[in-house]
Design a protein that fits this description.
The protein is an alpha+beta fold. The chain has one domain (2-82). The chain has helices at residues 2-5, 29-43, 50-58, 65-82, and strands spanning 8-13, 18-23. A two-stranded antiparallel sheet has the order 1-2.
Length: 84
C-alpha cells in the first residue's frame, strides 16, 4: 500500500482496541475523500481522518497543500534517518 499510495502505517487505537492501517496523505479534503472512495472499491471500507483537515484549516491553510508538503518532506527525512 505504501508503494501505491505514498505512505502507509499500522497504528493501534487504545480507545477501541483496534489496529488501523493509515494510507496516503492528500493535500485537500476533496482529494482525501476521492482516495477513500478508491480504497473502498479496492480494499474495503475506508474513511478520511478529518481531524488533519480541521487542524490544517485552523492553522489558516486554505487547501492544506503547504502543510501537506511540509509533512511529506518531514516524513521522507525521518525515513532516511531511520534507514541509516
Amino acid at each position: 500500500m505504501e508503494r501505491k499510495y505514498g505512505t502507509a502505517r499500522v497504528v493501534f487505537r487504545q480507545g477501541d482496541q483496534t489496529w488501523r492501517v493509515l494510507v496516503g496523505l492528500q493535500p485537500t479534503l476533496e482529494s482525501a475523500n476521492a482516495l477513500a472512495q478508491q480504497l473502498d472499491k479496492e480494499a474495503g471500507p475506508a474513511l478520511v481522518d478529518s481531524d488533519y483537515y480541521r487542524f490544517c484549516y485552523a492553522l489558516g491553510f486554505r487547501d492544506c497543500e503547504s502543510l501537506f508538503k511540509a509533512m511529506t518532506a518531514a516524513q521522507r527525512s525521518f525515513r532516511s534517518t531511520e534507514n541509516t
